[in-house]
């Protein structure tokens, strides 16, 4: 050791750089109490990895103490226009300091000095004592410090930055970097520099004249007039800029180098920190160091010991071995590679498997690409000139079918519903299954996304290969069958291996976190139900859509003529800018407000307000917009989405998107078809039953209002539902003291708006807007409502209090719905979080109920010897295709299942009721 310093190599970590890289590199995530922790997680993870990988025996983390520094005395505008830290990051700064302490690392900061100055000072001190220094940062401002014995390391690229890399960045050696920066300035830090001179020009000038002072003294020799003039006019600013960019190497630091010797974390400090912040993957990874048994995480949960072993399976003998291994293990991760995200039209290209450890394989079935070198290499192995060697698809399917249908072997997938549909198209009914996406969704719904890339980063500290890396982007992107097998192997096999590891990390958490019931009785069994529905699809009447589209087109032409006539001139109706000018400049309508772009706002709220005041043009424009959307989004697009083989539309249901548990529909989205207008309702008439069948629509009646009364324990409302009374009339009677007999329909409408507004946490402002009344009247209505139904008010306050404390709310079935914005400092986002918290238990319980009904439905229909098939789910409604002779019997069974969906887990004091409708089309049935 040197001069009593107990290490030979020192790492100086740019903590501030780590913070921002972590914040912007890790998707939003919160700990159970709602505090954002994505930067804390990323920072902790990065430091742990650095400690494991570094070759140094000394380390310190250097932070900025604040925004002010001595440089502001030199130049008042220095860093003056830097934006404030993001709202989500501010509460994480203190936690990041806690993370550094928990890792038993020295952390240094000093008021009046920037982290870079402290790094420069410690680097100089260490160099003078003969200690090698590595600055862990990619900050260009620190590159001036690079010299023999002092290097930098980019932690993201794991790349050493030495003199050559500095020259590549600045065009000069490190000792001249400050001269170049002084000339070029820095817009980020508001270092002025010399106008018009960039890095390249500055490097040329410094190389030619030696240094900044020599350049400024000889500026009159420069031949280019403008450059000469700018240098002469801004010479003093260049000198000031050099002071700003030059790092101080003599800061009177208080903590000596001797305190930077590497120390192991103290288990009693690190463990509680990781537990409080719910960093389970890090707890599992650190278990041995902490002297713990991994937190109920299987040995393979996040193990990355050793390099992955990927095998390309191109013959039957190898495939049979993998199948035998999977049967012996009893668990196998499965993933498919295809030519499309649309499972009903996709071609199966290959299958990947993993049985854990570091092993995974890829079985190519329909690739046409040889290796990039063009010589076949790894890929060809006996294949033809344009196709690599592969097991014939039919034979591979024949070999895999018994494994994938074996009830004793668990098949694990990430969004396995997609793979189940793909396999079903190839004659395989995959069962039983687990889904890592749904495990994550049940455990941490609302905290973050649940895609594989994000989960791998969060739980395994692994960055996955992205699809674009193997298939390209934009117009040059190819389908997976054209990806060479050397690339396909790593990409596809990794998917299976990561899925297996995620399963090992997530599944054991269900029981201790009391989420097993939600996963095992709702989400997991629903996968097969949805996969079957997606494959069935619903028949669409193409000629009807075509006629409706033509009708809309003609009406749009007529509307355009009317609008132009009212405006007195032709203009592009779809252009907000032109529309605003016509409305507010030409016609002089009131309420015109210009946005930052300088154009008038012409959103729906603006036009609806003008229309309510009796202005004709906004009314016609609203009608034009609605028809345009219906035509483009539905009548035109749906024709293209009819499957050519089945003649049906096959929507895709997503289970892990809405935090409340609601399903969402896409390609096409059949849940957002507008039904409040006559034109919108006509779209549903395009969905029809096959000949000899009818469509049966069964819809829960006011299920969310019933659940409000149930959850809030509001006796007056509960009794009204038990007695089968008109709940909106009862509310009007209670709130407005209006007799039920002969009630004015407008009064009932106002009560209905209050009932539904309360569910969504609507404010007096929102209710006033929806009813067209004053905000004072709206407030009086709400106050009267809470006066008559105090249980509702109590529920809302208690729910907000619970959400603030724990960061989530619960459905009646125990589903946790995390509300990340509940503890935001920003009042608008906090209020949004509180409204979401109020609504989530209600909407979430309703979603759980209809999911339970859907799961029971196939068995109930089979037991009744009925052949009806469930086709669609739209919020509180289920749609079935039923033989005409079985309509009445099917209706009874479906209504019974839906009305009793809570039994036996949950006994409601209020009955659920379901209303049925029948018709040749969905519109007629609904």
UniProtKB/TrEMBL annotation:
Keywords: DNA damage, DNA repair, DNA replication, DNA-binding, DNA-directed DNA polymerase, Exonuclease, Hydrolase, Nuclease, Nucleotidyltransferase, Transferase. GO terms for biological process: DNA-templated DNA replication; double-strand break repair. The keyword Transcription does not apply. Residues 680-886 form the DNA-directed DNA polymerase family A palm domain. Pfam families: 5_3_exonuc (PF01367), 5_3_exonuc_N (PF02739), DNA_pol_A (PF00476), DNA_pol_A_exo1 (PF01612). SUPFAM superfamilies: 5' to 3' exonuclease, C-terminal subdomain, DNA/RNA polymerases, PIN domain-like, Ribonuclease H-like. One of its GO terms (molecular function) is 5'-3' exonuclease activity. It is an enzyme of class 2 (transferase). Single-chain monomer with multiple functions. In addition to polymerase activity, this DNA polymerase exhibits 3'-5' and 5'-3' exonuclease activity. This is DNA polymerase I. It comes from Kiloniella litopenaei.
């Amino acid at each position: 050791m040197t001069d009593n310093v107990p290490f030979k190599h020192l790492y100086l970590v740019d903590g501030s750089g780590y913070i921002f890289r972590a914040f912007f590199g890790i998707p939003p995530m919160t700990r159970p109490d709602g505090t954002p922790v994505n930067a804390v997680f990323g920072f902790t993870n990065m430091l742990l990895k650095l400690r494991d990988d570094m070759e140094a025996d000394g380390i310190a983390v250097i932070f900025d103490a604040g925004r002010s520094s001595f440089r502001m005395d030199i130049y008042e505008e220095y860093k003056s226009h830097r934006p404030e830290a993001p709202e989500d990051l501010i509460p994480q700064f203190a936690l990041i300091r806690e993370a550094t302490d928990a890792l038993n690392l020295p952390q240094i900061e000093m008021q009046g000095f920037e982290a870079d100055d402290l790094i420069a000072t410690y680097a100089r001190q260490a160099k003078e004592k003969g200690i090698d220094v590595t600055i862990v940062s990619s900050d260009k401002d620190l590159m001036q410090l690079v010299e023999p014995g002092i290097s930098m390391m980019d932690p993201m690229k794991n790349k050493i930055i030495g003199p050559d890399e500095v020259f590549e960045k600045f065009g000069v050696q490190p000792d001249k970097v400050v001269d170049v920066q002084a000339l070029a300035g820095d817009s980020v830090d508001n270092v002025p520099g010399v106008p018009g001179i960039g890095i390249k020009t500055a490097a040329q000038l410094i190389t030619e004249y030696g240094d900044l002072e020599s350049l400024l003294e000889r500026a009159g020799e420069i031949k280019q007039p403008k450059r000469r003039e700018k240098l002469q006019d801004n010479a003093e600013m260049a000198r000031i800029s050099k002071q700003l960019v030059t790092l101080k190497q003599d800061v009177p630091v208080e903590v000596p180098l001797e305190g930077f010797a590497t120390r192991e974390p103290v288990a009693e400090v690190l463990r509680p920190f990781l537990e409080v912040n719910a960093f389970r993957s890090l707890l599992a990874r650190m278990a041995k160091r902490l002297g713990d048994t991994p937190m109920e995480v299987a040995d393979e949960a996040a193990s990355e010991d050793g390099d992955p072993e990927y095998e390309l399976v191109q013959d039957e003998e190898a495939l049979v071995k993998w199948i035998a291994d999977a049967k012996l293990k009893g668990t196998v991760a499965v993933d498919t590679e295809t030519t499309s995200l649309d499972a009903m039209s996709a071609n199966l290209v290959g299958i990947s498997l993993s049985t854990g450890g570091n092993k995974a394989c890829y079985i190519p079935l329909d690739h046409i690409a040889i290796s990039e070198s063009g010589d076949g290499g790894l890929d060809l192995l006996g294949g033809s000139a344009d196709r690599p060697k592969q097991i014939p698809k039919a034979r591979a399917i024949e070999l895999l079918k018994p494994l994938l249908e074996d009830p004793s072997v668990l098949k694990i997938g990430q969004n396995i519903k997609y793979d189940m549909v793909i396999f079903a198209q190839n004659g395989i009914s995959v069962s039983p299954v687990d889904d890592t996406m749904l495990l994550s969704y049940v455990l941490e719904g609302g905290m973050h996304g649940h895609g594989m890339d994000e989960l791998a980063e969060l739980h395994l500290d692994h960055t996955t290969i992205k699809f674009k890396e193997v298939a390209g982007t934009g117009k040059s992107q190819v389908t997976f069958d054209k990806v060479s097998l050397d690339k396909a192997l790593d990409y596809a096999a990794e998917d299976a291996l990561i899925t297996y590891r995620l399963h090992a990390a997530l599944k054991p958490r269900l029981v201790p976190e009391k989420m097993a019931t939600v996963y095992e009785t709702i989400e997991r069994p629903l996968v097969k139900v949805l996969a079957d529905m997606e494959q069935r699809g619903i028949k669409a009447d193409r000629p009807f859509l075509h006629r409706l589209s033509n009708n809309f087109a003609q009406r749009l032409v007529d509307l355009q003529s009317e609008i132009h006539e009212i405006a007195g001139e032709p203009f592009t109706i779809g252009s907000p800018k032109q529309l605003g000018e016509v409305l507010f400049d030409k016609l002089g309508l009131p309420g015109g407000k210009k946005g930052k772009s300088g154009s008038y706002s012409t959103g729906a709220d603006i036009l609806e307000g003008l229309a309510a005041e009796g202005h004709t043009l906004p009314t016609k424009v609203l009608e034009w917009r609605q028809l345009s959307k219906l035509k483009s989004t539905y009548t035109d697009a749906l024709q293209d989405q009819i499957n050519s083989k089945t003649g049906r539309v096959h929507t895709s249901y997503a289970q892990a998107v809405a935090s409340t548990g609601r399903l969402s529909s896409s390609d096409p989205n059949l849940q957002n078809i507008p039904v409040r207008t006559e034109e919108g309702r006509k779209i549903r008439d395009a969905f029809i039953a096959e000949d000899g069948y009818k469509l049966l629509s069964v819809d829960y009646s006011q299920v969310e209002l019933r659940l409000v009364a149930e959850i809030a324990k509001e006796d007056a409302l509960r009794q009204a539902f038990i007695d089968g009374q008109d709940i909106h009339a009862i509310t009007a009677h209670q709130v407005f003291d209006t007799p039920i007999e002969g009630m004015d329909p407008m009064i009932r409408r106002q009560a209905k708006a209050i009932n539904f507004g309360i569910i969504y946490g609507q404010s007096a402002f929102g209710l006033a807007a929806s009813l067209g009344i004053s905000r004072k009247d709206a407030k009086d209505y709400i106050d009267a409502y809470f006066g008559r139904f105090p249980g509702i008010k109590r529920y809302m306050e208690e729910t907000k209090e619970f959400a603030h404390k724990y960061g989530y709310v619960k459905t009646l079935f125990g589903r946790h719905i995390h509300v990340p914005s509940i503890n935001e400092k920003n009042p608008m986002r906090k209020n949004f979080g509180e409204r979401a918290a109020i609504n989530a238990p209600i909407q979430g319980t309703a979603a759980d109920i209809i999911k339970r009904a859907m799961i029971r439905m196939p068995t109930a229909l089979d037991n009744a010897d009925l052949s009806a098939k469930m086709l669609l789910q739209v919020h509180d409604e289920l749609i079935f295709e039923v033989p005409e002779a079985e309509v009445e019997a099917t209706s009874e069974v479906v209504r019974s299942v839906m009305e009793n969906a809570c039994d036996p887990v949950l006994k409601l004091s209020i009955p659920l009721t379901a209303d049925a409708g029948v018709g040749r089309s969905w519109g007629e049935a609904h």
